[in-house]
Amino acid sequence: MPTVYVTRKAHFNAAHRLHNPEKSDEWNRTTFGPCNNPNWHGHNYELTVTVGGKPNPDTGYVIDLAELKHIIEENVIRHLDHKNLNLDVPFLRGVLPSTENLVIAIWDRLAEALPAGKLYRIRLHETQRNSAEYFGPDK
Ligand code: NI
User: Fold this and answer.
1) What is the pTM of this model?
2) Dihedral Cα 136, 106, 103, 28, nearest 10 deg
3) What are phi and psi of 16, to 5 degrees?
4) Do residues 123 and 103 make contact, with C-beta atoms less than 8 angstroms apart?
5) Which of 40, 69, 78, 135 has the fewest C-beta atoms lying within 10 Å of its C-beta?
6) Which residues, given as ranges, of the chain have pLDDT below 70?
């Protein structure tokens, strides 16, 4: 059986601020621009999760997409949607919530919840034009 990749999309809305406390206010303003706004700002994030594997001969599925939906909801969306990513999310404590750092944190949550080796790619759009992708710590 060949390897097939299946993808599920999810959305969340969240607030954040990009600010590195090790650096000066001026450095932060210059580096992060509007994302350094002191009183936060929001994004409509779009999360794309791709799982790979060989289709199960009994179902034809790589993974039941209803199950994948549930895993994404329980491990990621429920914790991030309508939250402040700097303040409200225990698994993001101490993380500068750039899109890059978010895909790593989301990968770690989902890799633990999914069968070993199934998670293939996380893509997170912060805006329609800007996104980050992650294929796991070994890639
Ligand atoms: Ni931002």
Assistant:
1) 0.95
2) -130
3) -155, 175
4) yes
5) 78
6) none
Instruction: State residue 130's pLDDT score.
Output: 97
Task: Based on the residue annotation, tell me whether 82 is a catalytic residue of this protein.
Answer: yes
Q: Is 125 a catalytic residue?
A: no
How far apart, in whole angstroms, are the C-alpha atoms of residue 77 and residue 111?
15
- Catalytic one of 82, 100, 112, 125: 82
Q: What is the pLDDT of residues 98-127, one digit of tens each?
A: 999 999 999 999 999 999 999 999 999 999
Contact of 77 with 85, CB cutoff 8 Å: no
pLDDT at 1: 82
**b (16+ CB within 10 A) / e for 104-127:** ebbbbbbbeebeeebbbbbbbbbe
CB 111 within 8 A of CB 139: no
Sheet holding 119-125, edge to edge: 83-84, 4-16, 41-53, 119-125, 131-134
* Residue 22 annotated to the active site: no
